[in-house]
Amino acid sequence: MPWSSTACATPARAPTSTSLATDLPSPEPSALEQLAASDLLALLATLPPGYRTVLNLYAVEGYSHQEIAELLGIAEGTSKSQAARARRLLETRLTAQAHHSPQLP
Q1: For position 11, what pLDDT does the model report?
Q2: What are the boundaries of each domain within the chain?
Q3: Comparing C-alpha atoms, which of 56, 97, 100, 95 is closest to residue 79?
Q4: Cross-referenced InterPro entries, in alphabetical order (predicted)?
Q5: What secondary structure letter does DSSP report for 26?
């Protein structure tokens, strides 16, 4: 009997969504959700100038790391590392601020 691809085909599965868990409301607001815009701007201002510049160009202005490298005269890897370090520093500072500020009702 000749081999038939339809005989061995696996049934199609329904697509799963990995975002379902993230769509649920969290029991406590995150540090970012508790933060006022002025507080976020103040935290951004505390970043070292290189971190702040790269993060602004990448996350706010939408430039690619290659474009940032060309604009600033730095290596693309430097742009990526400064953006990553800026995010980690902001995350650390946001977490610290959340633990030291009173919780919202």
Answers
A1: 40
A2: 31-99
A3: 56
A4: RNA_pol_sigma-70-like, RNA_pol_sigma-70_dom, RNA_pol_sigma70_r4_t2, RNA_pol_sigma_r3/r4-like, WH-like_DNA-bd_sf
A5: P
Question: What distance in Å separates the CA atoms of residue 48 and residue 32, rounded to the nearest whole number?
Answer: 20
Q: What is the pTM of this model?
A: 0.61
75 in the Ramachandran plot: left (φ > 0), alpha (ψ -120 to 50) or beta? beta
Main-chain dihedrals φ then ψ at residue 5, nearest 5 degrees = -65, -25
Structure tokens at 5: 């691809």
Q: What are phi and psi of 83, to 5 degrees?
A: -65, -45
How far is Cα 37 from Cα 5, in angstroms, rounded to an integer?
A: 58
3-state DSSP assignment of residue 8: helix
User: Which stretches of the chain are DSSP H helices?
Assistant: 5-8, 20-23, 31-34, 37-45, 49-55, 65-72, 76-100
- Residue 42: per-residue pLDDT: 87
Cα–Cα distance measured from residue 98 to residue 32, given in angstroms and rounded to the nearest whole number? 9
Q: Does the domain at residues 31-99 carry the CATH identifier 1.10.10.10?
A: yes
